[in-house]
């Protein structure tokens, strides 16, 4: 189940957090932008795109999808291409195999495992055979920062999702710092990079 991520209040909370504290003074998103770009993901389907923070750093013609209509509207206001799930299903350039990769960042922790598997199953056919899949979830300190998180998804949880989806796991890593840092630093992430069968 998902909890509270579909409301306009949730979008407003994300917008406030984008420019709060040290984020107003330092380029805190730079390491995360670098991490996405170095993966060479091509045209990305960003599932659960939120305000488009990651979508901004994806390849040309990348597309976001989110169940929160207010967040989708915010992405569009920022010049990004984003759809609700129903709109994506009707988009002419978003059919089966039309994306090089799928990104699912800070999404799976907002739902139970069954729904997480269903979401991946729904969107993976839109990625071409042999395409990449990147799954990202917060570590312990970050997990505690959002009341809409319904479960903690670590490396084992990400691998379970990848296995259920039939992905080949190419690598998992802690970013931007080593794994122990995630217990105190709220922006440390679990990252899984997988591949769809060719």
From TrEMBL:
EC top class named in words: transferase
A Pfam family the protein falls into: Methyltransf_23
Enzyme nomenclature, EC number: 2.1.1.-
Keywords: Methyltransferase, S-adenosyl-L-methionine, Transferase
GO molecular function ontology, one term from the record: methyltransferase activity
GO BP, one annotated term: methylation
Keyword presence, Methyltransferase: yes
Keyword Disulfide bond: no
Protein name: Class I SAM-dependent methyltransferase
């Amino acid at each position: 189940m998902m909890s509270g991520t579909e409301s306009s209040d949730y979008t407003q909370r994300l917008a406030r957090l984008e420019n709060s504290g040290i984020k107003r003074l330092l380029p805190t998103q730079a390491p995360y932008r670098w991490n996405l770009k170095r993966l060479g993901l091509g045209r990305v389907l960003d599932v659960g795109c939120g305000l488009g923070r990651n979508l901004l750093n994806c390849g040309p013609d990348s597309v976001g999808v989110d169940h929160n209509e207010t967040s989708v509207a915010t992405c569009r206001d920022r010049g990004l291409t984003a759809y609700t799930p129903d709109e994506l299903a009707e988009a002419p350039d978003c059919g089966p195999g039309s994306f090089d990769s799928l990104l699912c960042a800070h999404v799976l922790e907002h739902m139970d495992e069954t729904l997480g598997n269903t979401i991946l199953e729904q969107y993976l056919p839109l990625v071409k055979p042999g395409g990449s899949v990147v799954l990202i979830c917060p570590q312990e300190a970050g997990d505690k920062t959002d009341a809409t998180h319904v479960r903690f998804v670590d490396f084992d949880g990400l691998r379970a999702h990848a296995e259920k989806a039939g992905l080949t796991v190419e690598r998992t890593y802690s970013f931007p710092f080593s794994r122990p840092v995630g217990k105190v630093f709220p922006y440390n992430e679990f990252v899984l990079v997988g591949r769809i069968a060719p």
